[in-house]
Amino acid sequence: MPKKHLNDAWRKVTARFDILDRHRDVIMQMMGAAWRRWRAEIKAKSYDPNTPLDELVSIRPVPQKLALEVWEALCHYWNTNEFQEKGRKPTRIEIIKISRRSKKRGDAPVDDEVRVEALLDEAARLQLQDKPEGTQPTEVHEDAFRL
């Protein structure tokens, strides 16, 4: 968030409440957590990733009494590939690969995990062969895990 907005928020808080400047960091952390909760609530109630972007942006009235520009910006952000990747849950195969690494040995696989990872990758590759072109490997991880 831009420093100007943070300073404006702090001025509004201190104008309303008698708070010492030494508490600024804690108050700003609390405000950040409240902002993230509110944003997550809006997304959970109002955003559907299966709805086309133009339909989402044209929802009237705008959810949660947001400004139209803010709603459009949120919809565009939530629709980006970068956000889609960040916001998705890891597959079981990804969790296995991450959890079976040694931090002490520079993320080297623990014991026989190289063999296990190779088997899981092969199972995912075989599952991917039966799917239409353009299917992402993570889409077949659950099926490959069951093999």
Written description of the protein model:
It is a single chain. The chain is an all-alpha fold. It folds into two domains: 85 residues, no CATH class; 55 residues, no CATH class. The chain is built from eight helices and two strands; from the N terminus they run ααααααββαα. A two-stranded antiparallel ribbon has the order 1-2. A hairpin with a 5-residue loop joins β1 and β2. The longest helix has 23 residues. It is flat and about 60 Å long. The model has no long low-confidence stretch (mean pLDDT 78).
List keywords for this structure.
mainly alpha, single chain, 147 residues, 2 domains
Largest sheet: 2 strands, antiparallel
Strand order of the largest sheet: 1-2
What characteristic shape results from the CA principal axes? flat
Based on CA atoms alone, the radius of gyration comes out at: 22 Å
Specify the helix fraction band.
55-70%
Regions with little confidence, pLDDT below 50 for 5+ residues: none
The percent range for strand residues is under 5%
The overall number of domains is 2
Based on secondary structure, the structural category is: mainly alpha
Distance between the termini: 46 Å
Total DSSP E strands: 2
Number of helices: 8
Mean pLDDT: 78
Order of helices and strands: HHHHHHEEHH
